[in-house]
Specification:
With 146 residues, this protein is an alpha+beta fold. Helix content is 38%, strand content 26%. The chain contains three helices and six strands; from the N terminus they run H-H-E-E-E-E-E-E-H. Strands 1, 2, 3, 4, 5 and 6 form a six-stranded antiparallel β-sheet that branches. Strand 3 and strand 4 form a beta hairpin. The longest helix has 23 residues.
């Protein structure tokens, strides 16, 4: 019986203090910094902007916030004109988490006849794009909290 009374007392104190923190401005930025910045577009605003920033050097083919997808157009560099890449980003959650985005990279090389042939993409390439987006999203979140 004493254990039950202690447990109830601890629970009552915890709930009371939790309510007080909301009244007296306790917590991190009144909770604003912890919640994902979900915009009217239905995806996490930090991830969305981070993706646009990270891939800004590429032309965009499709930017569909309501569908939660960004697709770039084919992009080649001057140093590798016979190779091109296309990136698709799908937003899977409104949370700012690593599993909230799915990155897909397609790479093609030009054959001698001029036709483009799909070639494998190293897994590290996809991971680097994803990490760049997540790093930029974290940076945007930190900047917004200042």
């Amino acid at each position: 019986m004493q254990n039950f009374a202690r447990t109830m007392m601890a629970l009552t104190v915890a709930l009371t203090l939790g309510a007080c923190s909301g009244l007296f401005g306790g917590g991190d930025d009144d909770g604003k910094g912890l919640a994902p910045r979900t915009t009217a577009i239905g995806v996490n605003g930090y991830l969305w902007q981070a993706t646009l920033d990270t891939l800004s050097f590429m032309p965009f083919d499709q930017v569909a916030p309501s569908g939660g997808v960004i697709v770039t157009d084919w992009h080649s560099t001057a140093t590798a004109p016979n190779e091109r890449v296309k990136v698709t980003i799908q937003f899977l959650s409104e949370d700012l988490r690593s599993d909230a985005v799915r990155v897909s990279v397609v790479r093609q090389e030009r054959e001698e006849g001029g036709a483009w042939l799909s070639v494998p993409v190293q897994a590290a390439t996809t991971l680097q794009v994803e990490e760049a987006i997540l790093a930029r999203a974290r940076q945007l979140r930190v900047e917004a909290r200042r």
